[in-house]
Amino acid sequence: MRYSSVVTAVLAAAAMTAATSAATAGSVTGKASYYGLKGRTASGGHVGAFTAAHRTLPFGARVKVTNLKNNRSVVVVVNDRGPFTGGRVIDVSTHAADALGFRSAGVAKVRLETVSR
Length: 117
Fold this sequence. Notes:
By secondary structure, the chain is α/β, with parallel strands linked by helices. The chain has a single domain, classed as Barwin-like endoglucanases (Beta Barrel). The chain is built from two helices and six strands. The protein has helices at 2-25, 94-100; strands at 27-35, 51-53, 62-67, 73-80, 88-93, 107-116. The protein has a six-stranded mixed β-barrel with strand order 1-5-2-4-3-6. It is globular.
């Protein structure tokens, strides 16, 4: 009985790791919002023209963000942590939101593709 519990736990962990790796290797779809911070970000930098906040990608990672409604894309550099609102996958700077065409809406459905880590 104990052996089967251990095997089940190991298989579940392996499946979760594989799913996470697959999502990281490909593209991720979800909601994006924007922010206009003043001051320093979590990495010690400042919000720039094309910067973003992401929960797990390393600082300095470059991510292609595509607005799925109008197909506009920009490449942003991760230099902060977030978003902390449920259901969102990335926060982009106001300049990036303008370029993506969703600043007036506040939120957009986007696809993220990691360009470099």
